[in-house]
Design a protein that fits this description.
Order of helices and strands: HHHHHHHHHHH
Oligomer: single chain
Low-confidence stretches: 178-187
Number of strands: 0
Shape: globular
Mean pLDDT: 86
Distance between the termini: 54 Å
Number of domains: 2
Helix content: 55-70%
């Protein structure tokens, strides 16, 4: 049986999926107050021997909603507190979890910290870009769209464009988006 705090966090996730965060949060209750409880759902529940992918999925949807607000502090806090876990979830075997993670990453590209994860010129950012390009070719159309949206935002940075062009399939993956309604690169 899940702990009371985990149950409360899951209830919060369900609320934040369907309610506009601007109707819930204010100066007295900042949007960042919801982040840590939601992040707890991305971890395995120590009280059970099986992973609750529904809680993980719904937490990702709620975090995506929070990341869509105009409050940069929410996006920056999610990046600072959850980035390693998000990188793991990008490779999830669960299509809905993977899709929700890519959608969250796409929303995080509205933050300078999010862009830096892919555009700082490091080997790690190159690896992250490689994963995002691979996800742009995923079988799931919603995952492809979210990855394409993130890539579209990232290609505003020369270092990312150079990295995509240097990849063997980087421009080819981008061409696939032309057929699905996305203009990803103009080289």
């Amino acid at each position: 049986m899940p702990s009371p705090s985990r149950t409360a966090a899951h209830a919060l996730a369900r609320i934040l999926i369907s309610v506009n965060p601007s109707h819930v949060f204010s100066n007295a209750l900042p949007v960042t107050s919801a982040i840590r409880p939601l992040l707890s759902l991305l971890e395995d529940d120590p009280s059970t021997d099986r992973r609750d992918l529904l809680a993980t999925f719904e937490s990702l949807l709620a975090l995506t909603n929070l990341a869509s607000t105009e409050d940069d502090t929410a996006r920056d806090a999610i990046i600072r507190l959850a980035w390693p876990k998000l990188e793991d979830l990008l490779l999830s075997d669960s299509t809905p979890v993977q899709r929700a993670t890519v959608e969250l990453v796409c929303n995080l590209m509205a933050s300078q910290q999010g862009i830096a994860k892919f555009a700082d010129g490091s080997k790690q950012s190159d690896n992250r870009l490689h994963i995002l390009l691979a996800l742009a070719g995923a079988e799931d159309m919603a995952t492809r769209r979210a990855a394409g949206g993130a890539l579209a935002m990232l290609t505003g940075w020369d270092v990312v464009v150079d990295a995509v062009v240097q990849r063997e399939r980087g421009v080819h993956v981008s061409d696939e988006f032309l057929h699905t309604g996305f203009l990803l690169l103009t080289v």
